[in-house]
Design goal:
The complex is a heterodimer. By secondary structure, chain A is mainly alpha-helical. Chain A is built from twelve helices and two strands; from the N terminus they run H-H-E-E-H-H-H-H-H-H-H-H-H-H. Helix content of chain A is 70%, strand content 1%. Chain B is mainly alpha-helical. Chain B has two domains: 54 residues, no CATH class; 211 residues, Orthogonal Bundle (MetI-like fold), CATH 1.10.3720.10. Chain B is 72% helix and 0% strand. In chain B, helix 8 crosses helix 9 and helix 11 packs antiparallel against helix 12. The longest helix of chain B is centred in the N-terminal third of the chain and has 32 residues. The two termini of chain B are 24 Å apart. Classes of the chains: A mainly alpha, B mainly alpha. At the A-B interface, helix 1, helix 2, helix 4, helix 5 and helix 6 of A face helix 1, helix 3, helix 4, helix 5 and helix 7 of B.
């Protein structure tokens, strides 16, 4: 995970800054100042190298995050000349009393759960299958499965709109049906989920394959010597050793599923029909840029951020526990 | 693969054939939409609704049609500018930051590092309104600069490069320092040449991501369709049933990425895997 152990690095700056031959402090009357200056010069380089990234980070991530929090207590329509009206917690009250939010959270939950077969089950099956075939073929299959990941989301949306076309699309022709997959309440969300799954499964396959090659084969060999069958080895040796990778994929699925669906929803269904594909992110987008209700959108943003933190820290804790297997 | 596989994984011919069949089917299923995209785009206009697997006779009419209806070439150029500039900017800024983290120990290092890691938890949607307002104040709405500038700090780039720099042989840095070179000089004469493969792979990954980016351009360029993803969207909205030119536009939107992928497959796959395993 991202929060890897902090690695101690020798203080390179001290030599590089030419501080080794600095005079002892207080050698002359101006020496304290000069020593301070030298100290600043010696300490400056890492901060200077870090500055551009840090400025961008503050300006484009942390400043707006704080401002969103502030904005969530105002009523404003995004027009610069129109003053912001303080409304206290009215935005939050509106959010929590209208059914929109609860509905979209429910839909998002469905999306996340329905994505798990694509990001966890399928990759494990594929990774186990690729161990049966020889090296070059395995790489070729992986390349094929990975290819959709490179398709731009909008291009993917376009081709799936054509594949799922109710009158002439190949899916309906093959099935002998005339279903309007993307425009009926019963199927629209599932169509979006399937397209998203097609898009991201290749990435998950690669991650699991990488995790699998990282497992020491001695464990399986030892289990075999003890008389374990292939299925038993997979179940009791390989999968537990793979669990940190799977936990990471679970975390990604939970945090990013709704993000992955956004371009598809925006281009294919616009949240409809009758709100059947309005996930939390699409709801936020609508509040902000369709209804121009900045305060409400900000309040929703704050709530989602809080939810995010909660889920992420929970999953990070779980994955910490899981990664202790390989000792 | 075979020598690393556990003994028990070496199976009979039936087992291997089963693997081939299942993986082959799955692979075909994954690639079919991409194939269909290009197959449709290459059919003659009157054949677009045909469902034969091979498009024949081949025709570029749909491409000509797409070019005539939309400024596809201009959009591709704009998108290429955005992708290249933002990838280069992200590489440079990420490299500088990663170098700072790896080569020095300084006060506040840990909190500053966590500030970078923390961006993973901030969903784009929680920051979009203030950013939109700021871009408006800077006069950058509806411009390509407005698309590029806010994305210039790639946390992924910083963390990935930091990890590589951490494993950089310290002896090399020490030797360069003995020669009396400055930190800036060491970065460009010692670190960058050694890191070239990593920088190339990361650069490609960042460029592909920027090329395919949708959310941010959709917000900044609400009134124009200057980049290909947005042009494609407007095409879908207005002429959704004109499948030939639509598939041609979509095909062109994916072509540069596929071309990169075919030539640099191994690098790209490695970069994607590493990005996931941060």
């Amino acid at each position: 995970m991202v929060t890897g152990a902090f690695v101690e690095v020798p203080p390179a700056a001290q030599a590089a800054g030419g501080a080794a031959d600095a005079p002892p402090a207080g050698a002359r009357s101006r020496a304290p100042w000069r020593a301070l200056w030298r100290r600043a010069v010696r300490l400056a380089p890492p901060y200077l190298f870090l500055a551009p990234a840090l400025v961008l980070l503050v300006v484009w991530t942390y400043r707006p995050l704080a401002q969103t929090f502030y904005l969530s207590f105002f009523s404003w329509n995004l027009v610069p000349d129109v003053p912001m009206v303080p409304v206290g917690t009215a935005n939050y009250e509106r959010l929590l009393t209208t059914p929109d939010l609860a509905d979209s959270v429910g839909l998002t939950f469905v999306v996340i759960v329905a994505m798990l077969p694509f990001t966890l089950v399928l990759p494990v099956v594929v990774a186990l299958l690729t161990r049966r075939v020889r090296g070059r073929a395995a790489a070729a299959y992986r390349a094929l499965i990975f290819a959709p990941m490179l398709v731009a989301p909008v291009a993917g949306a376009a081709v799936w709109q054509w594949l799922l076309d109710p009158s002439a699309g190949i899916v309906n022709t093959l099935l002998g049906t005339g279903t309007n997959w993307l425009n009926s309440v019963d199927t629209s969300l599932w169509a979006i989920i399937a397209i998203t799954g097609w898009h991201v499964a290749g990435f998950a396959v690669l991650v699991v394959s990488a995790g699998l090659t990282g497992i020491n084969p001695d464990y399986a060999a030892a289990a075999q010597v003890d008389g374990a069958s292939r299925g038993q080895i997979t179940r009791w040796v390989t999968l537990p050793l793979l669990s940190p990778t799977l936990a990471f994929l679970l975390l990604m699925t939970v945090l990013l599923s709704a993000q992955w669906t956004f371009p598809l929803i925006d281009t294919l269904t616009q949240g409809g029909p009758v709100g059947s594909t309005t996930t939390v992110y699409y709801l936020l987008w609508e509040y902000g840029f369709r209804s121009h209700d900045a305060g409400l959108a900000a309040a929703a943003g704050v709530l989602f951020f809080a939810g995010f933190m909660l889920v992420a820290s929970l999953l990070a804790r779980i994955s910490d526990r899981l990664s202790r297997y390989d000792d | 693969m075979d020598e690393t596989a556990p003994v028990g994984e070496r199976g009979g011919i039936a087992r291997r054939a089963g693997g081939h069949i299942m993986l082959g089917l799955l692979g075909l299923l994954c690639v079919f939409p991409i194939y269909w995209l290009y197959a449709t785009s290459l059919r003659a206009p009157q054949d677009v609704y045909e469902l034969s697997v091979l498009p024949w006779p081949l025709s570029l009419d749909s491409y000509a049609d797409a070019m005539a209806k939309n400024d596809v070439a201009g959009m591709l150029l704009n998108t290429a500018i955005v992708a290249v500039l933002s990838a280069l900017g992200q590489l440079l800024i990420g490299l500088l930051a990663a170098y700072a983290f790896a080569a020095w120990r300084f006060p506040l290092q840990r909190p500053l590092y966590l500030l970078f890691v923390g961006t993973w938890l901030v969903p784009f949607q929680a920051t979009m309104l203030p950013n939109y307002a700021l871009l408006g104040q800077l006069g950058l709405l509806e411009t390509l600069a407005g698309v590029i500038i806010p994305t210039l700090c790639s946390t992924l780039g910083v963390l990935l490069l930091r990890e590589h720099l951490m494993s950089f042989p310290k002896e090399l840095l020490d030797a360069a320092r003995m020669d009396g070179r400055s930190a800036w000089g060491i970065l460009w004469t010692v670190v960058v040449p050694t890191l070239r493969p990593v920088l190339a792979a990361l650069g490609i990954l960042l460029a592909i991501t920027a090329w395919n980016e949708y959310f941010w351009p959709a917000m900044v360029l609400q009134r124009s369709n200057a980049v290909i993803q947005l042009g494609l969207r407007s095409f879908m909205g207005t002429e959704g049933n004109d499948w030939g030119p639509l598939m041609a536009t979509a095909g062109l939107a994916c072509l540069p990425v596929f071309a990169l992928y075919l030539f640099l497959q191994r690098h790209i796959v490695n970069a994607f895997v590493r990005s996931g395993l941060k």
